[in-house]
Amino acid sequence: MPIATPKQFAAMLDAAQEGSYAYPAINCTSIITLNAAMKAFADTKSDGIIQFSTGAGQFASGLNNKNSAYGTIVLAEAAHALAEQYDVLIGLNTDHCQPGAAADFLKPLIEATAKRRAKGENNLFQNHMLDASILPLEENMAISQEYLKLCAENEIILEVEAGVVGGEEDGSAGSEDMPDELLYTTPEDMVAVHEALSGLGRFTFAATFGNVHGHYKPGAVKLRPQILKDGQAAVTEKYGSDAEFDLVFHGGSGSLLSEIRETLDYGVVKMNVDTDTQYAFTRPIADHMMKNYDGVIKVDGEIGNKKAYDPRSYLKAGEQAMADRIAEAVTDLLSDGKTLFGQV
Question: Could you list the residue range(s) of the whole structural domain that residue 92 is in?
Answer without folding.
Answer: 6-285+320-332
